[in-house]
Design a protein that fits this description.
The chain is of the alpha+beta class and 375 residues long. The protein has a domain at 169-303 and 346-356: hypothetical protein PF0899 fold (2-Layer Sandwich). It is 23% helix and 26% strand. It has seven helices and 21 strands. It has helices at 2-16, 49-65, 131-136, 141-166, 207-219, 235-241, 321-324; strands at 24-25, 30-31, 38-39, 74-78, 85-91, 113-119, 121-130, 171-173, 177-178, 201-202, 229-233, 248-249, 263-267, 270-274, 280-281, 293-299, 304-309, 315-319, 331-340, 344-345, 351-356. Strands 8, 11, 12, 13, 14, 15, 16 and 21 form an eight-stranded mixed sheet that branches. A hairpin with a 4-residue loop joins strand 1 and strand 2. Helix 2 (49-65) packs across helix 4 (141-166). It is globular and about 85 Å long. Mean pLDDT is 82; it is low at 7-18 and 43-47.
Length: 375
């Protein structure tokens, strides 16, 4: 009997030393992800409430620092218990009135509604930190991990929004410009492969191309955001554009306190947001020289939507070593999760993707990992 107890005790200890997956918090109880065995909730949680609030704040603040697209989205709440899909509805517009004929009843117009839907998915990641690292490191490891998790959360959300906007079919290609004179060279490209990126001729985003993009938005009657259009631009493209004498730096605005996150300046009624996650494209979208092209998104009011799921917003999750680290308190875990639809394009005409090359086309590497299915 004593031998049997020893064997059982050894098996129990081996299970306790398993990875963090041996304890998964669910809506009902604690579950072993490997065996499915369930144990009841307990009240033990050695991470103090004050530290939880501190780490949550650190994660959210660090995430917000690097979020640029999301600040312009139309947000739609999704209450608990309402599924995973949100529908945005909009009324169809009417044609202008026609001249009436005396005594004749005119034909009425059709009135209807169209809709766009978005579906949330769950994303998350975590890191395991040993007790020795936490105890002996010169720097506060949990805090450092929290800050980096915030950056990861921002990158995740920015990339999901960016990739969703890339599929929008409203696109403008930059003219090939003779760099020495600034004159247009040849016909306007209709494909990335026709855009030049040599030392003498380049399809660069010029002030004139910005004016063309703004004109397209105006002609499509795209509403502005507080009187301006906005564009999210890669630093490599901004480098070329900021050489213009017409460029107005953000700190020279009449009301600099109204600057958006990442805002760098204004040109022709469009304010620019610099974002390292703006698309740098290779593969099927290389230029004529076989190097990178860039997508700059110009957009107006409520052009795309983001779902705000109740209970599914960005959440910091820390399990202290006393709580999850096994019988010898050997590790803690730091992570986050969130639910998002990425982005749903609500109005095709309100997002204009302007394709260009840059002085850095031959140096930069692509930051797009998806399948090239956009136009």
């Amino acid at each position: 009997m004593k031998k049997i107890y020893s064997i059982l005790f050894a098996m129990l200890n081996l299970q306790l030393f398993a990875e963090a997956g041996t304890l998964v918090n669910t809506t009902q109880n604690y579950v072993n992800a490997h065996t499915g065995a369930a144990t009841p909730f307990d009240e033990k949680n050695t991470l103090s409430g004050e530290m939880k609030v501190f780490y949550d704040t650190e994660l959210l603040e660090n995430a917000r620092i690097d979020m640029y697209y999301a600040q312009f989205a139309k947000r739609q709440p999704l209450p608990k218990g309402r599924g995973t899909t949100v529908e945005w509805r909009k009324w169809n517009t009417f044609d202008k009135a026609t001249e009436l004929q005396e005594g004749v009843i005119p034909t009425g117009q059709k009135f209807g509604m169209s809709s766009k839907t978005g579906v949330i998915k769950q994303y998350g990641t975590y890191a395991t930190i040993s007790d020795k690292l936490e105890l002996r490191a010169y720097d506060p490891v949990i805090l450092g991990a929290t800050e980096e998790m915030g950056a990861s959360a921002a990158e995740t959300q920015e990339t999901l929004i960016r990739d969703a906007l890339l599929v929008n079919t409203n696109v403008l290609y930059c003219d090939n410009i003779t760099l020495a004179t600034g004159a247009k060279s040849g016909a306007t490209p209709t494909d990335c492969n026709l855009m030049e990126a040599s030392d003498t001729v380049m399809a660069v985003l010029t002030p004139d191309m910005v004016a063309k993009a703004v004109t397209i938005l105006k002609k499509d009657r795209v509403p502005t955001i507080n009187g301006k259009y906005y564009a999210v631009i890669h630093p490599s493209v901004a480098y070329d554009l900021r050489k213009s004498d017409a460029w107005v730096e953000a700190h020279k605005y009449a009301s600099p306190e109204e600057i958006y996150n990442g805002e760098i300046g204004e040109l022709h009624g469009c304010r620019f947001i610099e974002n390292v996650f703006a698309p740098v494209l290779g593969g099927a979208y290389v230029n004529k020289a076989g190097t990178m092209t860039y997508a700059t998104f110009f957009f107006g009011k409520e052009s795309f939507g983001i779902i705000d799921p109740e209970g599914g917003a960005l959440e910091m999750i820390i399990h202290d070593k006393d709580e999850i680290g096994g019988p010898l308190n050997q590790f803690s875990t730091v992570g986050y999760k969130l639910e998002t639809n990425g982005a749903t394009v609500l109005y095709t005409e309100r997002i204009l993707r302007v394709m260009s090359c840059s002085s850095y086309s031959g140096i930069d590497e692509t930051n797009y990992e998806g399948v090239y299915t956009f136009g």
